[in-house]
Recover the amino acids of this structure.
């Protein structure tokens, strides 16, 4: 190699290294309920990533896999694996299952899971023991609190319908917790299962005809996609209801209590940062929610003549007027 060729090569080397360093880190995202790029939950995730120094289109790229049904998830997960993403963000239990089944080596960060241990995603919160870590929302454990709030509004409450979709990784766990909690409070649980939209109306109508006045709605992608239909049916039947996420209340539902989902998504960026810097999901402890919300739709309460106790109103983080 002559001196001129050597000089050109040496000058080009730092430029090549800088170009390599500027290549964005490649992430994947998979979900059945966060179904659009402008979702507020994805906005919270991007905020968390920015706080850690990551910006889409600059130093990270995200390939999004949005599924309209659970059946589409395996192909979307396989596509992310084939594209050799460095990390997969999985939203919701169905997305986590699809990602887990597609890879045992690519790190998976849960933006939210119902119960990470009982769903089999990790051995323990302190030491997950596999390629999955992230956020768990402890949804089943909050069922008792939601039922107590219904009892505050309607002290004579004796029966509660539990609306749930039985074909989901987490909903059977939540249903069992709801059944136990209802019985502990001296109330009778009525199971209302639905896998198709028409079953929602039929199940709730039947429960109302049998004298059931209150409903606990178990969240999953199916109920989220049908939240407007659920809320419409509940309001027409004059039934009280409590939900697990705010989107039901924003659709016209009465009350929600649970983990702040936007905060779960934002906090999942902490795991992205640690893993991209070399940490292993094997030993990154799973984080439980630290922030919970009580949201009451005061406009619906007034419209329907539902007296919300002052003791409940003062605890509300937000009231929709």
């Amino acid at each position: 190699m002559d001196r001129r060729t050597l000089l050109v090569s040496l000058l080009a080397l730092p430029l090549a290294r800088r170009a390599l360093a500027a290549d964005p880190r490649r992430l994947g995202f998979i979900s059945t309920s966060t179904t659009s790029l402008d979702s507020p939950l994805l906005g919270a995730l991007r905020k968390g990533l920015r706080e850690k120094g990551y910006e889409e289109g600059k130093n990270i790229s995200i390939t999004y896999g949005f599924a309209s049904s659970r059946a589409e998830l395996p192909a979307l997960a396989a596509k992310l694996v084939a594209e050799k993403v460095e990390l997969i963000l999985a939203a919701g239990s169905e997305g986590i299952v699809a990602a887990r089944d597609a890879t045992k080596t690519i790190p998976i960060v849960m933006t939210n899971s119902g119960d990470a241990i009982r769903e089999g995603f990790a051995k323990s919160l302190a030491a997950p023991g596999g390629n999955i870590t992230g956020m768990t929302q402890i949804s089943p454990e909050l069922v008792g609190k939601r039922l107590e709030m219904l009892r505050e509004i309607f002290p004579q409450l004796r029966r509660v319908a539990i609306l749930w979709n039985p074909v989901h990784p987490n909903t059977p766990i939540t249903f069992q917790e709801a059944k136990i909690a209802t019985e502990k409070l001296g109330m009778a649980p009525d199971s209302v299962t639905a896998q198709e939209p028409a079953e929602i109306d039929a199940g709730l109508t039947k429960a109302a005809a049998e004298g059931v006045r209150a409903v606990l709605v178990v969240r999953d992608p199916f109920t989220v996609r049908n939240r407007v239909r659920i809320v419409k049916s509940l309001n027409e039947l004059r039934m009280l209801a409590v939900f697990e996420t705010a989107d039901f209340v924003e659709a016209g539902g009465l009350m929600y209590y649970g983990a702040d989902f936007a905060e779960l998504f934002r906090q999942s960026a902490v795991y992205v940062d640690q893993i991209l810097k070399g940490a292993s999901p094997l030993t990154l402890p799973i984080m439980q929610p630290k922030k919970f919300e009580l949201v009451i739709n005061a406009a619906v309460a007034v419209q329907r003549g539902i007296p919300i106790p002052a003791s409940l109103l003062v605890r509300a983080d937000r009231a929709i007027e």
About this structure: DSSP finds 13 helices and twelve strands in the chain. The first strand starts at residue 25 and ends at 31. Residues 139 and 183 are 18 Å apart (CA to CA).
